[in-house]
What we know:
By secondary structure, the protein is α+β, with helices and mostly antiparallel strands. The protein has 13 helices and 21 strands. The chain folds into 2 domains: 34-262 and 484-505, 3-Layer(aba) Sandwich (D-Maltodextrin-Binding Protein, domain 2), CATH 3.40.190; 269-478, Dipeptide-binding Protein, domain 3.
Amino acid sequence: MFRWKATAALAVAAALTLTGCAGDNTGSGTGGEGAQLTLGAIAAPTSYDIGAGAEYGNRSPFFQAVFDTILQKNAQGEIEPWLATKWEYNADNTVLTLTLRDDVTFSDGTKLDADAVVKSLERFRDGTSPQAATLAGKTFAAPDATTVTITQSAPDPSLINLLSIAPGLVEAPSSFDNPDVSTNPVGSGPYILDTASSVTGTTYNYTANPNYWNKDAVKYEKLTINVFDDVTATINAIKAGELNGAKIADNNTITEVEGAGWTIESNELDFQGLLLLDRAGTMAPELADVKVRQAINMAFDREALLQSLQTGYGTVTEQVFPATSVAYDESLDSTYAYDPAAAKKLLAEAGYPNGFTLNMPTTPAFQQTFDLVAQQLSDIGITVNYTDPGSANFIADMLAPKYPATWMALEQNPDWQLINFMIAPNATFNPFKSEDPKVDALISTIQTGSQAESDSALKELNKYIVDQAWFAPFFRVQGTFATDPNTNLEFWPTNAYPSIFDFSPKN
């Protein structure tokens, strides 16, 4: 599917296929619990250098294993101290001061201090990682060995969260100039990569870091992550008892996985639906009328689409903010009932009793989706004129922008990231730079107001864009992870892959 992360480049994957095998779970670990944890993943790291390839999502376990983050996110998605023991903002939220631990060393024996953290933040900001732009414009300083300051021109409500994921990874500056920096990571994390026994792109073997500062968090002496490129191979490895946990790329295989005695854990990070991009009507004048956008929302039988496209694994929705957001309002998911007759009436009221033609991009990889979208819109009189720009140009042409609307699957980011990804005037997925004075005012309050003011504005913003039908979401997609009978897991609600700290052996 087309799955976007904020500021990331396009990844088109019609199917995710898997290859590889692994070990078992026996013995007693560094934390006194398990000797071996073997996991299946669907994507290998492109580079261990945080300035080149650091990212979370499906690649997060590779980086979590060898690098610490400045802050940590627990199984409930709450931010906790990690390398930084405390943090606080100045009065106008433009300077964040972090206090670091003083007992942490990198795996090459060098000390982790404020200067090392600053250099890592700068390396990430100035690099080519998918989220590098999230630190753009921020400056970093080390007033002393255990203090880091982050200065920004305006408040960034997402900063604390960013420091718990890829932008907050800390790499040993001593490794920056190593010729093998992309394949031989040097961090302060719970594990050390065994480069001699690992095969880049396929198998990654790790041993517990004997000098790790938080030994209680390390539940296994050894960690193996196998990357699969064939769905069948994953299922075969599960049935053969060669894995303790695996990312399930195809929800159609869930019944088979459960039949092997495995437990299914899930979350919902992505939504699929239409982006009604040209809300000012510069390319498609019809979309400037809110009644037209509302009619489009009423054209879709969301339950039927979920069943047809995801075998029912997911949750229908009419809002782009996730259920974990303070902005989310369950009642908004019944704003636009499936009602083709009412949709036709709205189109007539807007001056289009005979419908109109809407240009959108398509790609053969998702032909069923595009066919169903066209069918349901045709039922209310809207004819879809599809153009295939080619997979390589799909996103580029959409963001040019060359199309007034499109089907997409987008990640439901934390609130401030989502706003700057989809809603704000300069957001990536607002290619027509649509502005609305009410939206702009609410965004300003979210950025600079008190917590109570921000939360209230978030709720109002979500309701407003649903009422104004800025988007036509269909459903949130179930992300699935499975574990064997020997393994406990608490699945992160906000990441595609579980935290390695949330696996533990069953005793």
